[in-house]
Structure formats: C-alpha cells, structure tokens
C-alpha cells in the first residue's frame, strides 16, 4: 500500500501501529512536492484515519492525501451515453421471487439509467440517477381495474455525480426489499399484493433497450463507469469481456475508466479567483458551471473601461448588473431562471457584444434573455470569480459565493486550472482546486415526520407545516397523547387530535372526547350510518365494510392503553336470522382486530353464540338465543355492547340471511368507545433516595426526547440518567425550583436549566419535557418555562448504544424522592408500575392519586395531589374539613345580618367563571341568566328573611319564612308589576328542625328542592325578564340596603330579623357565611350583630324519599290552599298528635310480628351453604350473565343442559 501527501508545510502523521509500535510519516514542505511512503504489509480496512501530530508554525495548515491500494483485477466498463448492455435470459420469460443485483458506478452526470427490465404484464424494475440521486422503481404487478397499484419508488443518496465510486446492492425476496447504497441500507415492502417479478427477454444496464424507449419518457442513458455488475449470480461485466452478451450499441467498448477532464474549484465565504482576459475588447464572453445551496452569491465580476459587469445569484435566480458610467451611471439588469440553489450543476453563459447582451442558463437557447446596451462595451481584462474584495469605488455589494465552479470559460477559452494551481496564470485566495466540498445536509433527511428540509451552505431548516409536529427537526408533537390529558388541561367535550406515542412513528389522528362524566370517553367513529339497510343478491352474503378513517396501528394505540372499551351493535330484522341459535351455523358474523372472525353478538361474550336476550333469558322465542333467530314477520332487534377490547373494533360484518323473499335487515355499528389511559397514569413512588428503576439499554436516535410528570416534597434529586461509554443524559431537580438537563457526547457537554417562579417541591404535579436533536436542545417545564440552546454536529449524527437507563440515581448521587408518572422516551411509554414490583424502595402507583384511586372530596371540593396522600381544597365551597364535608354555619341573634358585596361601588364583579356545585357556570359579568342558591337553616321564629340578593337595579331574589312558618321564594327580574312568588304552603319550616333548600334557575325554569323531597319545577311568566341584572350584594338574616327595596319585604319580614341557624350558604361559587366566619379568607364581607359559629345540626338527612302516594305532605299540582297566615287552629295540634300516636302503635305491632317470623325461619334452616362465586355473581340474572360480568374474556361454551335445583 502506498500513500502520497501534498502539504503546504512539513507535517508529521501518525498513520498506523504494528506490533504495538506507532509509526509516523513526514510530509512535504512545499505546495507542489509529493512524498511517497510504501507500507511493508497490506492493510484490510473500510476506513482510514489520519491523525496530525505536528506541523510547522510557518504559514497555514493544509493537507492532501492519496491512498493507493494493492493491484487487483477489476471488470470496469466505460459508458459513453450510447452503449447499453443487454443481458438476455435463457428463457423468454422469468417469474422471479428473489433477486440480488449489485454494481458500482462513477459519474459526473446527474441523470442516467443504470439498469432497466420490464415485462409485458406491467412488471418492471429500474435503477436510475435523477438529479444526482438514486431512484429505484419496482412494480410486481397491478390489476387491470386499478384497485391494486404495485408501483413503488424509493430514493437514496445525494450528490452522486461527484466522480467517486459508489456501490449499490438490491436484494429482494417477494415484497421485501433491501436497498443499499454505500453501506447505507433502506428496508421497505413493495406496494400491491404480488410477490413475483415477471420480466420478458432481457434486463439492460447503462440505459434502455431500443424496444422500450418510446414508452420510457425519453430517459437519458448512463455516462460514466460501472464495475462488478452482477445479476442473480451472473457476473455481467465478465460476460461482456468474454463477449457473451449483446454490446453492439457501444461505439467504442473500453474496459477502463478515464479520468474526468473537469476540474472543480471550491469557494468559501472568503475565497476569490482572479483570472486574466482580453483587454479593450468590444466582446465580453464568460461561461461557467456552478452548484450551491445559497440563494445569493457573486459568480463573476469584471471592471470595464467605463463601468462594470456583475454576474450573480439573487434569490435563486441568475442576475446580471451592468453599470455604464458614460451614460450617467446607466444600470442594466438581466435575470433568468429560478431555484438554481438546489445543489445541482447549472451552466450560465453571458455574452455581450456590439449593442446587446445575451444570458443563457443550462444551455436552453430557447429561453435566452436578450437586452440592448446603450453603448459599446470595452473590457478591462481582469475577471474575479466567487468574490471581489478590492477596496475600490466599483466594489460589488453582492455576497460572496459559497459553492463549486467548473468549466470556466473566458473569451470562449477554457481556463486551465492546473496552470492556476502552479501559479502560471491568475491568482487565488482561500480556494480549493480540483475538489468540490459540497455537502447535502438534507440527506439523510433530519426533518422527521415528513417535514420538508431546505438548506443553505452552512445549515438546514425544517418546515413542519401540515405534519402535526413542531421543533427544529419536526420531532415534537403538537397534540396531547389522549383525551385524558386534554381533560386535565381543562378542556371540554369536543373533537381533538391526539398523538398516543408523541414523537414516535404513529401519526396524530382525530377522535371525539366525551368529558361529561367522571371518566373520559374516547370515541372512534366509523362511516356506517345507523340503521343501514342490508341486502344481498343471488343467495349470497352481504358484506359491509366499516372504516374508521385511521390506521390499525392508530386504533391499537388507543385500545391497548385503555382500561375498558365497548362498541354498540344492533341488528333489526324481519325474517332474517342472526346467529341461527341454538346449534346452527351462524348466518352472521363479524371481523374484529387482526381480521379475526367472531360469531357472538352485543351483550354476549366470546365463545357464547348468543345475543343479549339469550344471556338474560328474555328472547322472543325461548327456544332461540336471539330475537331475530325466531324468524318472525314482525320487526325485531338484537342489540348490545361488545366489551372484549382485544376483539375490537368491528371492521366488517357479513350478513347471510337477507336473500329470501320478505327478508329485511338493518345494521347499526356504533363508534368504538374507550375510557381510561393507563399510560398517562402509570406511576411509581420512590421512597428512598438510593432507590431506582433499572431498564435495559436504549439506542440514542438522532433526536432524543424525554417527558414525565413528577411531584415531590424534596428539594433535590436525580430524576433519571442514561450513561454510556462516551455519552450520557441526565435530568435532575436542584434547589427545589430548578430542573437541570445535561447531556454529552465524546468530549462535548451541554447543560440547560429552567427555574420555576414557584417551588417545585410543593407536592403538586409538574411536567418536564427535554429534547436534544441535531440542531438544538430544549428543556421545558410545565408547558410554560422554556430554554433552548443550539447544539453542535459532532457525535449527533451517528446513534450510539447507550448503557442502561436508571429512573432515579444509580451512580451514587441522591435519587429522586416522590412520585413519577407517564415516563416516555422517544415515543415509548415505560411501565413504571410493573418494574416497581419487587424493586426495593419503589412502590407501584402513587398514593393520593386523584383519578386512579377513590377520592373522598365532597360537595365540589377539589382534590389536590400530595406525595403520600391527597388533600381537598374546599375554598370554593361552603364546607370545611379534610373532605369538604363539615358544615360551616352560624347562629344568628335577633337583628344579626351578614352582607357580602358581589359588586362593590366602582369595582369589578366578584363572581368568577367557575363551576358551582351543580355545574352551573357563573359569568364574569354582573348579569346572570342562571344561578344556584343552596343553604340550610333551622329556626322557631317567623316571619324572617333568610337570604336576600340585591342588585343595582330593582331586580332581587329573596327567600323568607312567612308568619305561619311556611317558605316563600320571591323573584323580581323586571317585566312584571309584582314579584313572582313560589309559596311552599304545605310545610311548616319554623319547627326548629334543620331544613335544606336548593334553588336553581336557568332562564325561565326554576327548580326547587326542599330536604329529601322530589324536585319541583316552576316557570317564570313570559312577561318576566330572564336576566338578573347587575347583581350587587348578598344579605343573610336581615336586609340593610340603600335604594329602592320591595316594601312588602321590609314591612312583613325584615323586623325584628332572623333568629336561628344558617349553614351551607352558597350562591354559585360564593360562600358568604363561610367568608364571614373564617378570618383567614379575604373577602368583601361584613357582619352586624352577634354571629356564633355553629353547624346548626344540619347533617345530611338519611331518610329516603317517600312515594307520592304515601307522603302525607304531598300536594297534587294545581291544588289551591286557603291558609291564613295570621290564624292557627288550636285543636289542629291535638288532632295531629292523635294521628301520630296511632301510627306509632301500628308500627310497633308490625315490628314484633316480623321478629317472630324471622326467629321461626332461622330455626328451620340450621345449616349454612357457602360458595366460591366471583364477586358480582349474586347480582347477576343468570349463570351466563355472571360469567360475562366477571370475565369478558371467557371463551368456553356454556352447556345449557346442566342445571341445578335447590329445594
């Protein structure tokens, strides 16, 4: 092995070591000399690394190395663009299931066919260069109606017209293909359903045979060299040398690869090349080829005798600026073409003579631009290429060119760049001769998820529009992982895009999220309309395909993480049997996940050929297990829920009994509904700072992202770390408010930190998102606080196999202490709960989990997560206590009042937009169309005002106790001459007992509930307004208000005032009595008189409601009572006492009789019978129903003949 070195000064290189001894090689000391070293032994290697160990300090550093291998026999064929090798098969047609094709090529052309073969049935295989990239096209067959399209196209590589050797290997087995270019392999499957490649007669290399050219679209033949062509074990180049194949199309067949006559020049941002030309000539002719990624740059500049000419690239277009000073700085602009900064070679020719100028781009004479010149030009004789840095008045304002040039012509003469390199002509600065150091930064494409990559000479950018992802490399999903996560962001029921695997391979998709219940339902809708009519012809089956507008992978991502899934199915029939029960072959079946066939119906389970009525024993015909199996002429229906989620969703239903005369059927398949997200709530508790969870090694991708939720009371600790031999990744909590993200590759290390304005060790859930990619590193906390830093390229392009992942700290540092959940790395959710089982110091789940565990916050209290439990926030309720169940009340002495100002003078409205106990929202404005008033009271005094709510207008709401102890609700919302009143005349509320009142209004509808009695509904008159305008204050016990007040309230009920207990007082989200009794609550509340805290005995009543027929206090709607508030019947009390005494006597006698009967029964049945039935079986209607309830996965058939009777 030999190698030569060309250096600008003396350098020493450490080249290789033999027998553990290092050898160094000296380089040359000038720019032209060559130093050759011959190695004693041959070396077998894929890569050679040169390490400079010393160099002279004189001048600049530079190196050029050439490596020569050992001589070997190479079958090289040179292609001139006309010759094509045609390899004819031994048989006229080949039906091939496996192919192996390999070759090496070298070219300076960006387009050309490398190989092509096709068959008369439409099959083909083609490999071609297109815009200096390899394009492999395969079609294993398409059918005539076009329903099966087999065309598959894959591209690989970039800038392959670099005059270097490139190796290609194509391996196909059936539809699986490995496409390898320069040791980079792409694996893919061809489209369609066929496995064989059917080729006719031949396969060609270097171009298309003459027979197929008319249908090929005029593709160019290959120009360059090929080596080592093999096709399914046949060495094609060897056959060519031995004249075993047809080569008649070659003009001059040669078995060598001539060196290219082109010599490129590479320019950076500080380079220029100065070349001489003709002086005082009336003709200016300059042409060149260039390639670049930058949209702007100076290609050529020359000074004229009077003025100057500039040829450049502006926004991807070729532009020519001519400044003629003789004509008072006349400026002439010419532009042509666009998008020339695409990295491809483009040619440009500028010719100015006599009184006109012509500009031709890419040799397209038809698009040549011509323009007139006011004077005849006179050349200056000096031409600058790539840049112009002399400090003159005519200095160009164009940016310097970054890219490559070749084939430079001045005055129609090709410039000899070898002579330029030897210093014989021209000068140059910072250029690289005989090389083009262009790099395609978009190959491989670092823009993920089909993001569009664009680039300049120094960097690339990603356009993520329409992908559903964001970030520097389109790595981060724009959407949440599930409906569960949307709910915890405060979203309401609607359609949302979800991305279950985040940055993973599954694309986002749209679902409907139902958040009206305590649990969140995810609905995946299909395209089958309800009650779709089913018909079949020729006594065949009717097949109904059901599509969900998403892939099977997307569907599986929802069902696999769901706790429960269901899908409603219904079959309405008239003389159309369904399952042909009990023992027949089912007429109807359906396909679920993985196209598995199932013959059970909604309401039943796997392995049980029944419908819901067969499980519940209430079918139309007891002999059958489905209503439709009775084959009746009347319409019947079998419906129910399919709940075995591993079988869902329903993708196809086959109906087999609709072809008979009179048979009709209608099918309904509802949306797939799933609840719960086990990935979102997958949690573990770390109880020791030395504990951690261990996971196997992870491969570092080009982009790596980590996200999780945590809560802790500790000020610091390591969340996770991944340590490798040359790399690491580390996330930790510091100082209780800082999250630190650090990673390193090789000698590089990068660190990002985000500080929270509030403590993070507050036992609340916080979210951490960290990402590193080839362009930047990002750390985000709680979706708000964010830090971004650019990363360097070193070490990021090649993934490295990391060592084990440790959740917690395994390297001796203090680990995380608290709860962590929803840990996801590169789209993969880690099962913390499963790994925590059996791990010391780590427990599965997280105590205090507000959603996964039963929580006991009542009366609208908000559950707050804690490290070792949870607490209830009762601030927006009228209750106190650990579970918001303790009544807050007060005893009012005569004349005592509590005032709470909702709308202070000149101030904003106090009510906020929060949900009240019943879910009624409160507008942030002072005008209400719905409100809820809840309170409890007990008193002996009457009359009195319990609650009065005033306004800036004459609107008000009042609840009063009248003289006879009955309750009255008064609404005055305008539009009526008198307030609308609701009189509860049939109950004496002033009896010293606690009473509960709930008044809810929505527009005109008023719902009233007293104690445990049924809700009564009332309607405001049509003349009444529905808006409670400018709500101002809440008064409890007595009214003390300025302005106009209803005189009846003041005269009848306000004096002397309420005396008794009030508790649980809440108006929408405001608890005025609680604010008055709790000194730690800052609120616009004031108290006059004596108010003593008391719960008033207002415990929740446990008496269940009576039926209307048995309720002695029940009054039929429309009944009119003629009660006098001022008069009471004295003997009425005596009659009531007599009735009550009689009732008590009857009850005591009944209880004694029941006790005697129970004792006799117990002595008759002395034994006891115990069973091992599953929980829930005792409430099931039958054994089948019990099995379905307790085990939806039950697959055994139930034998109806086995029954037991107990006597």
Number of E strands: 79
CATH topology of the largest domain: Jelly Rolls
What is the overall silhouette? elongated
Cα Rg: 44 Å
Uncertain segments: 1-21, 391-395, 793-797, 906-925, 1099-1135, 1163-1207
Task: State the major sheet.
Answer: 13 strands, antiparallel
Work out the strand percent. 35-45%
**Overall mean confidence score, pLDDT:** 81
Membrane topology: Single-pass type I membrane protein
Transmembrane segments: 1138-1159
Family: Belongs to the neurexin family.
Disulfide bonds: 819-846
Layout of helices and strands, plus pairs?
Blueprint: E1 2-7, E2 11-18, E3 21-26, E4 35-38, E5 51-55, E6 63-68, E7 76-80, E8 85-96, E9 98-106, E10 112-118, E11 124-130, E12 133-139, E13 151-156, E14 166-173, E15 176-181, E16 184-189, E17 197-205, E18 223-231, E19 234-235, H1 236-241, E20 265-276, E21 283-291, E22 297-304, E23 307-314, E24 317-324, E25 330-336, E26 346-353, E27 356-361, E28 369-372, E29 379-385, E30 403-410, E31 413-414, H2 417-421, E32 427-433, E33 452-455, E34 460-463, E35 469-470, E36 476-477, H3 483-487, E37 494-498, E38 509-514, E39 521-524, E40 532-534, E41 542-545, H4 552-559, E42 564-574, E43 588-591, E44 597-598, H5 612-616, E45 636-642, E46 652-655, E47 664-675, E48 683-686, E49 692-699, E50 704-711, E51 717-723, E52 727-734, E53 738-745, E54 748-755, E55 766-772, E56 776-781, E57 785-790, E58 801-808, E59 818-825, E60 828-829, H6 832-836, E61 842-844, E62 862-866, E63 869-873, E64 879-880, E65 886-887, E66 889-892, E67 897-901, E68 930-939, E69 944-951, E70 956-961, E71 967-972, E72 980-984, E73 995-1002, E74 1005-1010, ...
Antiparallel strand pairs: 1-4, 1-6, 2-3, 2-5, 7-18, 8-17, 9-14, 9-18, 10-11, 10-17, 11-12, 12-13, 14-15, 15-16, 18-19, 20-29, 20-30, 20-32, 21-26, 21-30, 22-23, 22-29, 23-24, 24-25, 26-27, 27-28, 30-31, 33-34, 35-36, 37-38, 38-39, 39-47, 40-47, 41-46, 42-45, 42-47, 43-44, 43-46, 48-59, 48-61, ...
């Amino acid at each position: 092995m030999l190698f030569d070195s060309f250096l600008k000064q003396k350098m020493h290189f450490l080249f290789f070591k033999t027998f553990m001894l290092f050898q160094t090689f000296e380089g040359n000391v000038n720019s032209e000399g060559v130093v050759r070293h011959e190695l004693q032994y041959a070396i077998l290697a894929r890569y050679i690394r040169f390490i400079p160990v010393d160099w002279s300090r004189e001048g600049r550093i530079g190196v050029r190395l050439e490596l020569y291998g050992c001589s070997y026999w190479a079958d090289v064929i040179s292609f001139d663009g006309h010759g094509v090798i045609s390899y004819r098969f031994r048989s006229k047609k080949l039906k091939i299931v496996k192919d192996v094709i390999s070759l090496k090529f070298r070219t300076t052309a960006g387009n050309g066919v490398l190989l092509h073969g096709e068959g008369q049935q439409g099959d083909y295989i083609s490999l071609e260069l297109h815009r200096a990239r390899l394009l492999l096209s395969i079609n294993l067959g398409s059918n005539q109606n076009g329903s099966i399209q087999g065309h598959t196209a894959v591209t690989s590589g970039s800038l392959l017209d670099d005059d270097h050797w490139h190796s290609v290997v194509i391996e196909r087995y059936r539809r699986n293909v490995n496409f390898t270019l320069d040791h980079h392999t792409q694996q893919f499957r061809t489209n369609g359903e066929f496995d064989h490649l059917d080729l006719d007669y031949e396969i060609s290399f270097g171009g298309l045979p003459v027979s197929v050219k008319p249908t090929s679209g005029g593709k160019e033949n290959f120009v360059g060299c090929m080596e080592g062509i093999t096709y399914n074990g046949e060495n094609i180049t060897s056959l060519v040398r031995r004249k075993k194949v047809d080569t008649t199309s070659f003009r001059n067949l040669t078995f060598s690869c001539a060196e290219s006559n082109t010599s490129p020049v590479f320019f950076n941002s500080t380079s220029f090349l100065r070349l001489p030309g003709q002086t005082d000539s009336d003709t200016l002719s300059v042409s060149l080829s260039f390639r670049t990624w930058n949209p702007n740059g100076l290609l050529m500049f020359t000074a004229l005798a009077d003025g100057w000419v500039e040829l450049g690239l502006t926004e991807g277009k070729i532009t020519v600026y001519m400044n003629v000073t003789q004509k008072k700085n006349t400026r002439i602009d010419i532009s042509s073409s666009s998008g020339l900064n695409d990295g491809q070679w483009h040619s440009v020719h500028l010719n100015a003579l006599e009184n006109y100028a012509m500009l031709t781009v890419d040799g397209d004479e038809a698009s040549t631009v011509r323009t007139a010149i006011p004077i005849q030009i006179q050349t200056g004789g000096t031409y600058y290429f790539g840049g112009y840095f002399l400090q003159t008045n005519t200095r160009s304002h164009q940016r310097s060119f970054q890219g490559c040039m070749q084939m430079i012509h001045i005055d129609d003469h090709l410039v000899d760049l070898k002579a330029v390199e030897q210093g014989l002509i021209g000068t140059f600065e910072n250029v690289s001769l005989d090389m083009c150091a262009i790099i395609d930064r978009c190959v491989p494409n670092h823009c993920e998820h089909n993001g569009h990559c664009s680039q300049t000479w120094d960097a690339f950018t990603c356009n993520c529009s329409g992908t559903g992802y964001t970030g520097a490399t389109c790595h981060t999903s724009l959407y949440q992982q599930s409906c569960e996560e949307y709910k915890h962001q405060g979203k309401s029921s609607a359609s949302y895009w979800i991305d279950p695997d985040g940055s993973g391979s599954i694309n986002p998709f749209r679902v409907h999220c139902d958040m009206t219940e305590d649990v969140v339902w995810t609905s995946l809708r299909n395209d089958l309309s309800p009650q779709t009519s089913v018909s079949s012809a020729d006594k065949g089956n009717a097949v109904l395909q059901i599509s969900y507008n998403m892939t099977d992978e997307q569907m599986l991502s929802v069902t696999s993480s769901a706790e429960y899934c269901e899908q409603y199915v219904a079959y309405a029939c008239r003389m159309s049997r369904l399952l042909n029960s009990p023992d027949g072959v089912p007429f109807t079946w359906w396909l679920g996940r993985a196209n598995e066939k199932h013959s059970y119906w909604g309401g039943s389970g796997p392995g049980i050929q029944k419908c819901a009525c067969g499980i519940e024993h209430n079918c139309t015909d007891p002999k059958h297990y489905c209503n439709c199996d009775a084959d009746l002429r009347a319409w019947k229906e079998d419906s129910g829920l399919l709940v075995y989620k591993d079988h869902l969703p329903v993708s196809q239903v086959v109906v087999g009994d609709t072809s008979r005369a009179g048979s009709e059927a209608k099918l309904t398949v509802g949306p797939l509904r799933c609840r719960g997200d086990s990935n979102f709530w997958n949690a573990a508790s770390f109880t020791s700072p030395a504990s951690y969870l261990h996971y196997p090694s992870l491969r570092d991708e080009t982009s790596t992202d980590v996200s999780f939720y945590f809560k802790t009371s500790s000020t610091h600790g390591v969340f996770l770390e991944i340590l490798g031999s040359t790399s690491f990744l580390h996330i930790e909590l510091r100082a209780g408010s800082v999250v630190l993200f650090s990673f390193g590759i090789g000698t590089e290390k990068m660190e990002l930190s985000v500080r929270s304005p509030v403590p993070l060790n507050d036992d609340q859930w916080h979210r951490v998102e960290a990402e590193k990619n080839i362009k930047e590193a990002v750390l985000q906390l709680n979706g708000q606080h964010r830090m971004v830093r650019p990363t360097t390229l070193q070490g990021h392009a090649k993934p490295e196999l990391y060592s084990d992942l440790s959740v917690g700290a395994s390297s001796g540092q203090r680990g995380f202490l608290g709860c962590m959940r929803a840990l996801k790395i590169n789209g993969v959710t880690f099962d913390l709960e499963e790994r925590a089982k059996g791990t010391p110091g780590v427990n599965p789940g997280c105590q205090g989990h507000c959603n996964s565990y039963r929580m006991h916050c009542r009366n609208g209290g908000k559950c707050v997560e804690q490290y070792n439990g949870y607490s209830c926030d009762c601030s927006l309720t009228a209750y106190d206590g650990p579970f918001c169940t303790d009544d807050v009340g007060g005893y009012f002495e005569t004349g005592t009042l509590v005032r709470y100002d909702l709308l202070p003078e000149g101030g904003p409205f106090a009510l906020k937009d929060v949900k009240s106990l019943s879910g009624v929202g409160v507008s942030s404005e002072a005008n209400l169309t719905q409100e809820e008033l809840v309170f409890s009271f007990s008193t002996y005094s009457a009359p009195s005002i319990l609650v009065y709510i005033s306004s800036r207008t004459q609107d008000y709401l009042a609840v009063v106790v009248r003289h006879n102890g009955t309750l009255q609700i008064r609404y005055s919302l305008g539009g009526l001459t008198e307030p609308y009143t609701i009189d509860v005349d049939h109950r004496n509320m002033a009896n010293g007992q606690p009473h509960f009142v709930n008044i809810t209004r929505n527009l005109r509808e008023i719902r009233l509930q007293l104690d445990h009695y049924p809700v009564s509904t009332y309607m405001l008159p049509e003349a009444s307004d529905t808006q409670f305008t400018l709500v101002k204050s809440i008064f409890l016990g007595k009214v003390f208000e300025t302005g106009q007040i209803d005189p009846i309230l003041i005269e009848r009920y306000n004096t002397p005032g309420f005396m008794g207990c009030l508790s649980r007082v809440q108006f929408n989200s405001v608890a005025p009595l609680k604010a008055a009794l709790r000194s730690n609550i800052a609120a616009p509340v004031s108290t006059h008189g004596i108010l003593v805290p008391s719960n008033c005995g207002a415990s929740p009543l446990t008496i269940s409601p009576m039926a209307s027929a048995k309720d002695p206090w029940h009054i039929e709607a429309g009944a009119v009572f003629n009660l006098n508030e001022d008069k009471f019947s004295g003997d009425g009390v005596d009659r009531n006492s007599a009735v009550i005494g009689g009732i008590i006597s009857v009850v005591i006698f009944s209880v004694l009789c029941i006790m005697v009967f129970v004792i006799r029964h117990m002595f008759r049945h002395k034994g006891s019978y115990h069973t091992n039935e599953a929980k829930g079986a005792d409430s099931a209607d039958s054994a089948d129903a019990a099995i379905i309830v307790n085990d939806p996965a039950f697959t055994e058939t139930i034998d109806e003949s086995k029954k037991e009777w107990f006597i």
